[in-house]
Amino acid sequence: MTFAFPPAPVVCVPVLGTSTMFPVHRIYCVGRNYAEHAQEMGHSGREAPFFFMKPADAVLVVPTGDTVDLPYPTLTKNLHHEIELVVAIGTGGQNITVEDAPSHIFGYAVGLDMTRRDLQNDMKAQGRPWCIGKGFEHSAPIGPITPVAVAVDINQATIHLEVNGQPRQHSALSQLIWNISETIAQLSCAWTLQPGDLIYSGTPAGVGAVMRGDTLHGSISGLGHIDLKVV
Ligand code: MN
To answer: How many A from CA of 131 to the centre of ligand 1?
Structure first.
């Protein structure tokens, strides 16, 4: 077999403390999974969360200790940060139960669901898909994946984001509307989960705009931190 042109490289995220790479299959994202964020976006916070996707090559790997350039995307004048816990799936499946969900998790990482908010809002207003607001290049920054065996208890962890050293987002992960096991169970009813899937689990309140030159410092207690500069 020959290819008409060289196939795209496999998108990979490093696994913390190893030379192993986690090959990415799909990126699923949960919308409005914290009540206070749903409220800041104009909703009650009592509706069920929901899913959308980003292409796998939206991943932007952020090695620990580096400050990685985050290119300001085209078309937008309102690029928003959404700090999120990312769940890396190691074992796939369909119709996974809440009880069985933890056994499907490979590890966790700190991620950002970068959003062209003006374009997303235009699409919402017109009842059109969000792709242009959510699924652009470099829209899914992610730090190294911490394997579950060495990870903290996620339900006890807190998530933070600072922009230029100022706090913007902060929450306990226990505030998730769908916790991680429930999210995996729900997602696996709609799609067959595969090893390599990443789930961006939703963002807490405090989303806002960043400009060129801004620095972002995102962290989850026990899972390390990521640093980026908007260029
Ligand atoms: Mn999000």
So the answer is: 13
Cβ(63)–Cβ(14) under 8 Å? yes
How far away, in angstroms, is 142 Cα from ligand 1 center? 13
Q: Does 224 fall in a domain?
A: yes
Domain count, the chain: 1
165 burial level (CB within 10 Å; 0-12, 13-18, 19+): exposed
pLDDT tens-digit profile of 142-166? Answer: 999 999 999 989 999 999 999 999 9
Kindly give the distance from the C-alpha atom of residue 18 to the centroid of ligand 1, in angstroms, as a whole number. Answer: 28
Give residue 84 CA to ligand 1 midpoint distance, Å: 7
Range of the domain at 215: 22-230
Amino acid of residue 177: I
Q: What is the pTM of this model?
A: 0.97
